[in-house]
Amino acid sequence: MSVVISGTPIALFCLVRESKAPFKITLGRDNDVSDFKKIIKNEKPNDFAKIDIDNIKLWKLNEPVSSENIEELREITLQDNENVTLLIETNDIVDYWTEDQTPLKKSIHVIVELPGK
C-alpha cells in the first residue's frame, strides 16, 4: 500500500488523540487525504493494524498547537469547533495547506481520530 509523493513535499506533525507522542508525516501537496491516511497507516503499522483507513478521521488544526501543549489536545472537542477542519478524502492536501503556506515548526498540525474514540 505504498503511496507516491505527488507535488511539493510538506511535513506535518500528527497526534493520535489517545497518544502522548506526535509523529511526522511527509507527503505531497498534490496527494489527496486518502493518500495521507494510507501514509499514516504505513508509518504506524502496529497502531493501525486492525483499522481500515476509511474509519480514520483527520482533523486539521487551523491554529496549530505547540508540541509543548499536547495535553490540551486530548480534551479538545472536534465537532463544532472553529479551530479544527475535517479533512475530506477526495480533497488534495493543497486544499488545506496552500503552496505559499509553511506549517509552523514545533507544532501539531493534524489530530488523528480513531473509530469509536
Fold and architecture overview:
The chain is α+β, with helices and mostly antiparallel strands. The protein has 2 helices and 5 strands. It has a 5-stranded mixed sheet with strand order 2-1-5-3-4, with helices on one face. A hairpin with a 6-residue loop joins strand 1 and strand 2 (23-28). The two termini are 25 Å apart. InterPro entries: Crinkler_N. Keywords: Secreted. This is Crinkler effector protein N-terminal domain-containing protein. Its main location: host cell.
Give the structure's gist in a few sentences.
With 117 residues, the chain is of the alpha+beta class. 14% of the residues lie in helices and 29% in strands. It is built from 2 helices and 5 strands; from the N terminus they run ββαβαββ.
Topology, please?
Elements: E1 9-16, E2 23-28, H1 33-43, E3 57-66, H2 70-74, E4 84-86, E5 107-113
Parallel strand pairs: 1-5
Antiparallel strand pairs: 1-2, 3-4, 3-5
